Amino acid sequence: MPRKAKGPRLYLDRERKQWAIRDGSSFVRTGCAESDNEGAEKKLAEYIASKYRPAPIASPLIADVLLVYAKEKLPGTRSAEKAAHNISNLTKFWGKKKAIDVNSESCKDYIATRPKVAARRDLEVLRAALYYWHEHKAQLSKAPQVTLPEKPEPRGRWLTQKEARRLRRAAMKHQHLYRFVILGLKTGSRSEVLLSLKWSQIDLDTGIMDRKVAGETEASNKLKPPVRLGRSVIRLLRRWKEKDGKIQHVCHYNGKPVTKLRRSWGEACRVAKLKDVSPHTLRHTHATWLMQHGIDIWEAAGRLGMSTRTLETVYGKHHPDFQSRSSEI
């Protein structure tokens, strides 16, 4: 009788003095030196996880549901990075539970462990993962009841002109942050657009900034229309471009792209004495300023890549014509 396969395991290549993974007749290099046992074990765990294929059953473990969703649905999507964070949060609570355990009570228990906004985002991913399993793997024996906390009211925090000036001054200590703040206040672009913005997307002759790179698709709820730049911004951009030379990204740190604003944003807000603000506050501020200056709502919505309904609902009260006719009746 043939011997039973031992499964994937670590193997020390004494000639190279490196760990490898032996899986049957296959050898997979880990790149870990003989002394790096911890790194080799981690590589083995990742290898085993990559080979694991959950059985398509009607009552799966939530851990398997989330794993399949992460492997099959998320790759290549815009929300992959954020959803991966949500899945990490979900696994700690739901990992050992089964799909039949998802109901209003268990959801309430989960909501109690997280801030409501964060719990809502996590549970939205859980719901999507369960639907994906049901449609593509096996029909669930019982329809899960994913209960979400109430959707929070839209954030209304925006900066006054004085607050914006304080933030600009505080941001000058960090070149990448200063550019981010200026472009955020002047264009109302989302954070991810500004942090990934390249000089090739800005035409300094026509004064047009393209929010998306050539060939990029956009989500229906996050449009990225081109935006016209004002003269003062164009003057700044010309100086920045001359200084940057061959550097590709507009908001960069020593020539390297910035993916997230960590310490610099918090430090600038403390120096500027601003509370309850985030990078997205710059978008709220630009939208509010457009309304305060009486800009036509269709033009403002087109500039922001926002629906007129959202603009009216969240920012309409700042427009000088807000209820102007009905107020005199």
Order of strands across the main sheet: 1-2-3
Major sheet: 3 strands, antiparallel
Q: For the terminal residues, how far apart are their CA atoms?
A: 95 Å
Contiguous runs where pLDDT drops below 50 for at least 5 residues: none
For the secondary structure, the number of strands is 8
Mean pLDDT: 89
How much is the radius of gyration in Å?
Answer: 26 Å
Label the structural class. mainly alpha
Number of helices: 13
Order of helices and strands: EEEHHHHHHHHEEEHEEHHHH
Share in helix: 40-55%
Looking at the structure, what is the overall shape? globular
Question: Could you tell me the strand content as a percent range?
Answer: 5-15%
Describe this structure in words.
Helix content is 46%, strand content 9%. Strands 1-2-3 form a 3-stranded antiparallel β-sheet, covered by helices on one side. A hairpin with a 2-residue loop joins strand 7 and strand 8 (256-257). The longest helix has 21 residues, at 116-136. The mean pLDDT is 89. It is globular. It contains 13 helices and 8 strands. With 329 residues, the chain is mainly alpha-helical. It has helices at residues 37-51, 62-73, 80-94, 104-111, 116-136, 161-171, 175-187, 191-196, 231-244, 263-271, 281-292, 297-304, 308-315; strands spanning 9-13, 18-23, 26-33, 202-203, 208-209, 227-228, 252-253, 256-257.
